[in-house]
Amino acid sequence: MDLKNKKIIVTGGAGFLGSYVIDKLLKRGVLKENIFIPRSKDYDLREKEDINRMFSDFKADVIIHLAAKVGGIGFNRENPGSLFYDNLMMGVQLIEQARLHDIEKFVAVGTICAYPNFTPVPFKEEDLWNGYPEVTNAPYGLAKKMLLVQSQAYRQQYDFNSIFLLPVNLYGPKDNFDPSSSHVIPALIKKCIDAKRNNKDKIVVWGTGKASREFVYAEDAAEGIILATENYNSSEPVNIGAGFEITIKDLIEKIVSLTGFEGSLEWDSTKPDGQPRRCLDVSRAKEFGFEAKVKFEEGLKNTIEWYEQNN
After folding, report:
1. Is residue 110 one of the residues assigned to a domain?
2. H or E segment at 109?
3. Is 98 a domain residue?
């Protein structure tokens, strides 16, 4: 699909990942007036009437659905009900109304949290149904996973062209650094830099440090999403990641070094580690030309620099 002359709705286009996706579309030659970013104050995407009004206001060919209610482990523990309801209703209503409005292609962006808690590493897409997700983020992960079921069912019954992507943990400049809802990298960067600024000699880190994670730079993830929009037309899910893993202990030591924090670490083992390991098999995404480009340390430096300049 050549996107240059398409009219595209990007839900969540004003958010962290969305800002990178918009940049990629503009660089592909998509006109600014052919990109529509629905704002939550104008359209409640959980409501059918608001979605229909959005389609009336902007005649789209393609939808890239990034909008989501998200957060780290603490946020997931405190808000399981709203995370389930809001994410499920947004996705289900959007896909159904997109079908009824003859949208050419729907790109649903899911989450790594959809995988079973004890998925063998590296995570292969065919392992997606071999168990229950990690309990702290299961409501969010399952809500997003239902969009895969809907995508496959709609292709089978209606020949509706929708695809489902599974990005691993994102990071990068413009990330969410709010301690009440941020993910692990921005949370750790904020703790280290704020401790330095306030002359504190210790920071507290959640868990034991033994869990592992994989991270993909947000700009790389955006490129993967655009490549899939252009070149992928199957409802089989696709991992979007960088294909490596790092323990939380090694991650915090790297961030401590890069931020120059010289104090001590205190591990709060009463807090959960979350899923034991995360690392993706990214071979399916390579079939449509995606491969992460930004080296992890380079991405961390860019993220730290952005936080220092903007907070």
Report:
1. yes
2. strand 105-109
3. yes
